[in-house]
Amino acid sequence: MRAQPRRFYDGGVLPVGDRVGLPPDPAHDPRIVLERHDEAGLEVFSLERRIAYDDRHLGEILVPATTDFRTDLTSTPALFTWLVPKTGAHLPAALVHDALVAGGGDPSYDSTEGHVIDRVEADRVFRDAMADTGTGVVRRWIVWSAVTAATIFVGGGLTAASGWSPLRRWAQRVGAGASIAVIVYLGYCATGDLFDRDWPLAWAVPWMGERPWWQEVLGGLSGAVVVPLVLSLLWGRFRMAGAIAGVMLAVLLHVTVGLAAISLGYQLSERLAAHAPRVARAVAVGVAGGAVVVFGWFTLG
């Protein structure tokens, strides 16, 4: 899809109190003006000006619809901000998507043509809008797969109004959830196989076997691609999202576990330093001293 940045434009200003509202202006670029708020210890932002997006299928969409709309910018878990940062070229698309999927009460968007936009359609709008901002092909499909997975599992994602019966909705969730569970389990098995460890409940994956380490790594990577592609069939109409999310999960599983361990260590360090500074200093001295001993032992023999 060719980028069409002019599909984004200034959405004007909502009327507040004595302030007169301003209409959308397709002749001017969007102006993202944010005000930071701290709500229940969470950093969120309000939009001081509206963003307008001319979707190919739904026409003009204006966000937000009310001044109480809040966003956390791009809703990326902290572990993955290296892959999809909170802000960047994709930010206008992310803000539009946040408004389209905001739950509770009245919609947080205005559709000039009167469309009611469900989460599945909102995810499609997000993907197209990212293309129009010039977001890279790989990144926008990864992001779309992630938000589609969220749509499958969150309450209100697959609604009866969109043709999803309870049975069909749960079948979709079970299929997607089962594929994720299998990928994680096979990643566990493959890790034990790579390090020649007989881990509990592990299965010897045939695409690795007893081979030189580089062949096992190559076999593991091939399995991280082929297996998720097959399992993506369990995602039904969302099989493209299942394929992309599955491959990303399989390939980045160990990276994610490592980053999670580092993040947990950091969080524990922060808590310890805040609530028991003397203990934190003692632990820091102990870790530094232990590192010196190990370094000297390994270096000097």
Distance between the termini: 60 Å
Uncertain regions spanning at least 5 consecutive residues: none
Secondary-structure element series: EEEEEHEHHHHHH
Number of domains: 2
Oligomer: single chain
Using only C-alpha atoms, the radius of gyration works out to 24 Å
Give the strand content: 5-15%
Strand order of the largest sheet: 1-4-5-6
Number of strands: 6
User: Count the helices. How many?
Assistant: 7
General form:
globular
Major beta-sheet overview? 4 strands, antiparallel
Proportion in helices: 40-55%
Mean model confidence by pLDDT? 94
Structural class: alpha+beta
In short:
With 301 residues, the protein is an alpha+beta fold.
Question: What's the arrangement of secondary structure elements?
Answer:
Elements (H helix, E strand, L loop, with lengths): L7 E3 L23 E6 L2 E6 L3 E5 L3 E5 L27 H11 L8 E2 L7 H14 L4 H17 L12 H29 L18 H19 L7 H37 L1 H24 L1
Antiparallel strand pairs: 1-4, 2-3, 4-5, 5-6
Helix pairs in contact: 1-2, 2-3, 3-6, 4-5, 4-6, 5-6, 6-7
Notes on the protein architecture:
The strands form two sheets. Strands 1-4-5-6 form a four-stranded antiparallel beta sheet, covered by helices on one side. The radius of gyration is 24 Å and the shape is globular. The protein has helices spanning 91-101, 119-132, 137-153, 166-194, 213-231, 239-275, 277-300; strands at residues 8-10, 34-39, 42-47, 51-55, 59-63, 110-111. With 301 residues, it is an alpha+beta fold. The termini are far apart. The chain has two domains: 5-16 and 24-159, no CATH class; 166-283, no CATH class.
